[in-house]
Design brief:
The protein is 41% helix and 22% strand. By secondary structure, it is α+β, with helices and mostly antiparallel strands. It is globular. The two termini are 31 Å apart.
């Protein structure tokens, strides 16, 4: 079993994190917990046993997975200094790059966190020196992000007018599957009904975008998982 010599999480914090992960009510394997917390599976087995003995309602077994039998009351979530700074930079990146709606939601989420964390840690939010900059922002791209995200969630077909890098224009009807951020541009991956295949579309090359009322169902060979499998096999 591989060791994780660089793990510095205190055991009490690790037990707390295990409970937080198990609160999603889905089975979580010891292997997944070990990878998330950077410890051995044997350590996870001991932790699960100790949690059970202390009265935490954990059910499951090794090799199958674990979950909580019912919701339990847990003390208010506490953040480390690094976790707070990670949240701050995540919010700032969302406000800069993730569209107006997610940017606003990210800020309101941070406001809620600011209201409940100890006063001694609030300076990490107010004084963070990590920034996310974007020059010459395009409002149409922010709008496209919001529309695409909702279309993906609701499985609505999209009609787009697209300009390729060589200047050729085309009209496409696509099944939007996912959005990928590449550090400066977003791409929309979808199943293109014109090409009858997966295609990637840079949002900054979309000339117009219109969601349809029509929806689509996942089809074998045409899902985001199928796209990822194809990319990983290339």
């Amino acid at each position: 079993m591989a060791a994780f010599p660089h793990n510095t999480m205190r055991r009490a914090d690790r037990l707390f994190q295990i409970v937080q992960i198990l609160r999603n009510k889905r089975l979580v394997t010891a292997k997944t917990l070990a990878e998330r917390l950077e410890v051995s599976e044997r350590t996870i087995y001991r932790d699960i046993q100790d949690l059970s003995l202390s009265g935490v309602p954990v059910e499951g077994e090794a090799g199958v997975g674990y979950r909580l039998r019912h919701t339990i009351d847990i003390p208010p979530i506490m953040f480390t200094s690094d976790e707070i700074e990670a949240l701050v930079v995540g919010v700032r990146m969302s406000k800069t790059w993730a569209g107006s709606e997610l940017g606003y939601s990210a800020q309101t989420a941070l406001d809620k966190i600011t209201a409940v964390i100890p006063a001694g840690l609030r300076h990490k939010i107010e004084d963070s020196k990590l920034f996310s900059l974007r020059f010459n922002p395009r409002q149409d791209i922010d709008s496209y992000l919001d529309v695409c995200r909702k279309a993906i969630d609701g499985k609505h077909l999209l009609h787009i007018s697209y300009c390729r890098a060589d200047g050729e224009y085309s009209q496409r009807r696509i099944r939007p599957l996912g959005l990928y951020f590449w550090g400066s541009v977003w791409t929309l991956v979808g199943w293109c009904e014109l090409r009858d295949d997966f295609r990637n579309f840079r949002l900054d090359r979309i000339q117009s975008l219109q969601p349809e009322n029509a929806t689509f169902a996942d089809s074998e060979g045409q899902s985001l998982q199928d796209f990822v499998k194809r990319m990983t096999c290339m």
